[in-house]
Amino acid sequence: xxxxxxxxxxxxxxxxxxxxxxxxxxxxxxxxxxxxxxxxxxxxxxxxxxxxxxxxxxxxxxxxxxxxxxxxxxxxxxxxxxxxxxxxxxxxxxxxxxxxxxxxxxxxxxxxxxxxxxxxxxxxxxxxxxxxxxxxxxxxxxxxxxxxxxxxxxxxxxxxxxxxxxxxxxxxxxxx
Amino acid sequence: xxxxxxxxxxxxxxxxxxxxxxxxxxxxxxxxxxxxxxxxxxxxxxxxxxxxxxxxxxxxxxxxxxxxxxxxxxxxxxxxxxxxxxxxxxxxxxxxxxxxxxxxxxxxxxxxxxxxxxxxxxxxxxxxxxxxxxxxxxxxxxxxxxxxxxxxxxxxxxxxxxxxxxxxxxxxxxxxxxxx
Lengths: 176, 180
Hints:
The complex is a heterodimer of chains A (176) and B (180).
Chain A: H1 2-23, E1 42-44, E2 52-54, E3 63-68, H2 73-88, E4 93-98, H3 102-112, E5 118-122, H4 126-130, E6 138-142, E7 148-153, H5 158-174
Parallel strand pairs in A: 3-4, 4-5
Antiparallel strand pairs in A: 1-2, 3-6, 6-7
Chain B: H1 3-9, H2 13-17, H3 24-36, H4 53-63, H5 82-96, H6 101-112, H7 127-154, H8 162-174
């Protein structure tokens, strides 16, 4: 009896591993930057290239950094949600315009709405490397001390906003 | 043999007929077109690989062992993804700034995690990765040995009877000289 049960058992274990493997997303590479200080940047505004924003300007408040580009298709999916989130006034959203053309980027915002308090320009993606960006869109939740608390890889969804991002923001805002 | 037959023999017939040129005249027109239209019309100027072959060599050696996060089964050295382009450029810049290989790899691990390394470090979380295959091999070898031993115990030596021996001898003699 056991000589038949052992292969069956081995098969079930293997199948269970494979089944779990199917549900994992290999594109979601966990970021080593979680709970580390947000990399410092100094970038020009998209609207008003003579103005400079640094990441330290936002110390003392919880904010979102959303990496976006006009050439990015998935950004269009999440964009209405970002506009709604910005209008709700829960949290300020800052945009990192990643490897884009300024004029097309501004046209894109005019067309789909501009949820960003400020959008800064990263023309060659150098700041993107510091933040470990490997695809657009990506969204970072940064706390009052300038620590990255969460990274959303890929577009934000209603689900990810409701279950993870907004509860986290509210909790972080309560902290001193 | 006419010209189109000749071309057929050389396997070029389809190419030319697709231009609707079957005759010698047509071929001449085609050749003229090829040589007269300036070749620069379809060739771009080659992008310089790098100013410094030394830097390029080090960069390639480094990126060979790094994983492209966009096309995950390719190394950064092989990948044509934008991401890999950017990382290669960044590594060149860092080599120029006299950073050591160790520092450059640490720079990337700090940003992208151990996942960028094709050669992962030994850590509590990677023990299974490092020793899993060895453990499986040992388990496999062990069960093979156990199986073979058990089988040997089950086999009994049985001696042949007189008639069986004769039969076997007859069979062997039967094949003599037949070169089977």
